[in-house]
Amino acid sequence: MTKERLYLFDTTLRDGAQTTGVAFKLEDKRRICKVLDDLGLDYIEGGYPGANATDTELFASKPDFANATFTAFGMTKRAGRSLENDVGFQALLQSEADAICIVAKSWDYHVRVALGITNDENLESIAQSISAIVASGREAMLDCEHFFDGYKGNRDYAVAVARTAYEAGARWVVLCDTNGGTLPHEIHDIVTDVVTVVPGTHLGIHTHNDTENAVANSLMAVRAGCRQIQGTLNGLGERCGNANLTSIIPTLLLKSEFAEHFETGVTPARLRTLTHASRVLDEILNRSPYKHAPYVGESAFATKAGIHASAILKEPETYEHVAPESVGNTRRLLISDQGGRSNILAELDRLGIAISKDDPRIGNLLEEVKEREAKGYTYESAEASFELLARRALGEVPKYFTVDSFRVMVERRHNAVGDLVTVSEATVKVFINGDREPLWSVAEGNGPVNALDGALRKDLGRYQKYIEGVELVDYKVRILTGGTEAITRVLVESHDTTTGARWITVGVSPNIIDASFEALLDSINFKLMKDSAPAEHVKVVSRY
Prior knowledge:
Elements: E1 4-5, E2 7-10, H1 26-39, E3 43-47, H2 53-58, E4 69-75, H3 87-94, E5 99-105, H4 108-115, H5 119-135, E6 139-145, H6 147-153, H7 155-167, E7 172-177, H8 184-194, E8 203-207, H9 214-224, E9 228-231, H10 245-254, H11 256-259, E10 262-263, H12 268-271, H13 274-284, E11 302-303, H14 307-312, H15 316-319, E12 332-333, H16 338-350, H17 360-375, H18 383-393, E13 401-414, E14 420-432, E15 439-445, H19 448-456, H20 464-467, E16 470-479, E17 488-496, E18 502-509, H21 512-530
Parallel strand pairs: 1-10, 2-3, 2-9, 3-4, 4-5, 5-6, 6-7, 7-8, 8-9, 11-12
Antiparallel strand pairs: 13-14, 14-15, 16-17, 17-18
């Protein structure tokens, strides 16, 4: 039986940016784009070119996507203004987007009150805007804002908005539950009606989660005929969030009602990266992953010791609704480490480290990872630290240098012109392996971590040429436990300006400076390892 194609449209970089406390930097957006493209999504909406400097720069060049269509978001041209004289609309046409999704009012009440124009003028703006996008060679889409409220208020006009966009050449007409108040049975009934006017192969669904029904509403819309689903990774979005693609995608692929009839661009192999993608986003946002999230949460396949734990080893398929490894997650049982071992092997394979699954060093590495995670380390985003840890366990990383000691001072004083300033100064004593005399480096910085980073990279002797282009570009701190003995986890992102490579390392300690320094050390060692820097061995006693 031939399966129908469903298309997945991600709006994390626009809708997700509406989340309280979320602000994506340009490099954040580019990194998230890479994660989403690797996952196999069909459309990635990058933002609104012309609306802010970040989005404008993002759309100044086209990402090198392997799977996704790079999509810009914007508005229809303004009524009473020509296409050529509408600055906002022209910014869309001048962007490097392959597709453009514009939003329009589909509730006649909003057309009258918010826009202050006639219903016909709104339809004319929609038709002209869609036609202009098609004429530019781009794929055109229309988000019908507040469609379901508009349908309830004036069915004929809401449907006319959808029909107008379709007849003007829109590839997709997306029905939006903008305030998140529509219930699943209403979604089903309304979409069933709309597909009599606009073919389901051209209909999309966009839902918000204000009644905790965004995922259910999206799936119900598919059952009723929609063939494009819009949503965000981890359900980010304003108010209560958008439809959570992290839940929708595995449901489409793993639940027979959908899997038997539909296919998406997310293959089973790509689906196994879903948990990783979810947690990368959380680390970018510097927030703890939601442990109880369906499919990808740390507790999604966790079972305490007892009758379930003992039985799940024999018949896991009867206790778990899907296999945890199918979404890149792991089974967590107090009496079993099989899921963890599989994850270690899969990660080593991804890193290109060839090793037998029966090699005893795998078990040793697994135990070390578990011990470190119990102390607060995390390797979901800090892949550079994990690779160092793994290659060290396999004896593949030489000792390049040893830090004998470091010291940081922070002083607040009046400078020469009488301004009150805070100055940080760091001193680092390093032994380069093979040398018997230490190197001392001193640097000032904008804060103690910046000063330490400067001192560490100021003089590494024969290794200096390898790290000339390395710079610290991001620094995130999370307090893992409270009280006077709080454990601090630090993630450091480094960038090599000569190659463009980026990597993230992690450090954990009760002392924030100590945790930061550990992450900085991993960063430098990772760069030296990747560049195959030569090393000589000398014994130098140090805790580092």
